[in-house]
Amino acid sequence: MKVTDIIIVVLFVVTLITVFWYLFGNSPTLEQGLLILILTFMFTIYGNVREQGSRLELIEKSFLKLVDDFKEHVKHK
């Protein structure tokens, strides 16, 4: 597991605890619970964007290799 995945799981668990705590009373305010939920979503989005960025780099490298292959093919004609 990556560090971001661990943070997301921990924040999600804290969010669930806060929601149940809020439902049963004597808890933090609703805004504090929403803040934890928003932080969880932000870390999730950050992890997804970062993962997509690394995938795009791999695709870009693949296309550059393909361009080189086409250039070599054109030279041999």
Outline the secondary-structure elements.
Layout: H1 3-23, H2 30-75
Helix pairs in contact: 1-2
Brief sketch in words of this structure:
The protein is mainly α and 77 residues long. It has helices at 3-23, 30-75.
What does this structure look like?
The protein is mainly alpha-helical and 77 residues long. It has one domain (3-75). It has two helices and no strands. It has helices at residues 3-23, 30-75.
- The domain count comes to 1
Element string (H = helix, E = strand): HH
Distance between the termini: 50 Å
Beta-strand residue percentage: under 5%
Q: Describe the largest sheet.
A: none
Low-confidence stretches: none
Q: Mean of the pLDDT scores?
A: 82
Secondary structural class: mainly alpha
Number of strands: 0
Roughly how much helix do the residues carry, as a percent range?
over 70%
> Tell me, what's the shape?
rod-shaped
Taking all Cα atoms into account, the compactness measure Rg is 23 Å
How many helices? 2
Keywords summarizing the entry:
77 residues; rod-shaped
